[in-house]
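Task: sequence design from structure.
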């Protein structure tokens, strides 16, 4: 049987794979954080994906609504391009994008808050991905550094051989790698078995800690509770934990306020009611406790409280 060989990914391919891993990971987290029961799953998925990818989504009255597959309402949702603005740089006219050439999408200029209602996921009117893009690239760089450090930690055996002792030395190496308790070799073999030294320090633990820190920053921006990701969280200062909780809730409230205001305008202009809500509970404040958990997992009384 031909021995199966492991082929290491090219650095450019590995970098792309790690980028896609983090990109879709946090897209899924964002899209799973908010729901609207008045909309069908495909409508919710489309709206949240457009908020992730682009700046905004337009709600509008469908034309030829009998040809529409979903049965939720007579309105639709699409991306848009602004065509006219008022004194305060707010769009007053726009045109809907129709990449699938749907017969339900109007192809004329529409008046904002009369024919169409525009919504954004955040008050900066940018995509959610744009808010965390630098942090995702920072995670990719960390993963590439981890990969390099891991490779450099693999110290290979350098074994000078000749045809006479080739098989004998090969058996010795295999016995070592097979975790044999005792490996027998003559003095000549021992003196010729060498390991290539590397000056590269072991930093994987530090890289892992930095990765957790960056991932927590991303989750905070997405409004997702991440205190549980902090190592030895029982040692966090109470004010520090509560400050982070407030920031998490501020970001979550930013998303929810924008979705709520958009829903209210849709109800006023197009007569369709929908209510968005956060799936997860807000991050809660941390209070002082009379007990702490030791590293072995047992509850102990704080000294001096007896």
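Answer:
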């Amino acid at each position: 049987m031909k021995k199966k060989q492991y082929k290491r990914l090219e650095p450019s391919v590995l970098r792309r794979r790690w980028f896609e891993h983090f990109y879709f990971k946090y897209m899924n987290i964002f899209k799973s954080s908010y729901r609207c029961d008045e909309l069908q799953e495909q409508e919710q998925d489309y709206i949240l994906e457009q908020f992730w990818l682009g700046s905004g989504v337009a709600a509008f009255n469908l034309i030829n609504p009998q040809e529409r597959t979903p049965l939720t309402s007579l309105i639709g949702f699409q991306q848009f391009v602004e065509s006219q603005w008022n004194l305060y740089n707010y769009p007053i006219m726009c045109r809907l994008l129709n990449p699938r050439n749907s017969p339900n999408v109007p192809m004329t200029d529409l008046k904002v808050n009369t024919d169409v209602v525009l919504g954004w996921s955040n008050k900066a009117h940018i995509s959610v991905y744009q808010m965390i893009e630098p942090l995702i690239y920072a995670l990719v760089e960390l993963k590439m550094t981890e990969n390099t450090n891991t490779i450099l930690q693999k110290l290979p055996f350098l074994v000078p051989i000749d045809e006479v002792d080739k098989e004998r030395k090969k058996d010795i190496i295999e016995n070592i790698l097979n975790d044999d308790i005792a490996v027998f070799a003559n003095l000549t073999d021992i003196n010729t078995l060498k390991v290539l030294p590397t000056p590269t320090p072991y930093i994987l633990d530090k890289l892992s800690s930095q990765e957790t820190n960056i991932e927590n920053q991303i989750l905070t921006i997405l409004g997702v509770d991440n205190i549980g990701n902090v190592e030895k969280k029982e040692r966090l200062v109470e004010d520090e934990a509560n400050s982070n909780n407030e920031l998490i809730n501020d970001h979550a409230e930013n998303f929810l306020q924008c979705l709520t205001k958009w829903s209210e305008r849709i109800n006023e202009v197009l007569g369709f009611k929908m209510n968005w809500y956060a799936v997860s509970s807000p991050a809660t404040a941390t209070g002082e406790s009379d007990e702490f958990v030791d590293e072995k997992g047992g509850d102990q009384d704080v000294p001096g409280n007896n």
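The mean pLDDT is 83.
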